[in-house]
Amino acid sequence: xxxxxxxxxxxxxxxxxxxxxxxxxxxxxxxxxxxxxxxxxxxxxxxxxxxxxxxxxxxxxxxxxxxxxxxxxxxxxxxxxxxxxxxxxxxxxxxxxxxxxxxxxxxxxxxxxxxxxxxxxxxxxxxxxxxxxxxxxxxxxx
Amino acid sequence: xxxxxxxxxxxxxxxxxxxxxxxxxxxxxxxxxxxxxxxxxxxxxxxxxxxxxxxxxxxxxxx
Lengths: 142, 63
Fold this sequence. Notes:
Chain A is mainly alpha-helical. Helix content of chain A is about 75%, strand content about 5%. Chain A contains four helices and two strands, in the order E-E-H-H-H-H. A two-stranded antiparallel ribbon of chain A has the order 1-2. In chain A, helix 1 packs antiparallel against helix 2 (about 45-70) and helix 3 (about 75-110) runs antiparallel to helix 4 (about 120-140). Chain B is mainly alpha-helical. In chain B, about 60% of the residues lie in helices and about 5% in strands. A two-stranded antiparallel sheet of chain B has the order 1-2. In chain B, helix 2 (about 15-25) packs across helix 3. Classes of the chains: A mainly alpha, B mainly alpha.
């Protein structure tokens, strides 16, 4: 792959993902941005620019996922990340549930059939499924 | 749990970074251990014992 795990550290305070730890990490980001700009500047057709940008983003995504999977974390960092992600999930679930209830109540008060954004419900269901599968996997493994 | 990681580390003239590298953890973890803010797993406790050349693990950690 292109980027190396030792160039990055995991993002802790501003969302998820990576943050450059070394100058090589910053160069890595700058190169991708430069390529994206060059694609837009060059006299390609709109379709070519779109396809090229999608390919670039796909390469970047695959590389970033690879870096995140190979990023070494010690036991303390794993524990901290687990607790932080759990807390983030709980607040996310709370906001999702409040959102679904709000949409149901406000649409009901308008005298219509309760309307809820199906993506919110799908997100909740997906989270429940992921938790179930993860626990099944962990119970089998340990 | 109390530990004497810092004492044994300084005896061997190791920096926190060097000890962290020997044990396969981050420097921040060594700092947390030395400050008594984090208790290591059994694996890490034995890794520290070996890295600090301590004979018995009880010499390094005390409840």
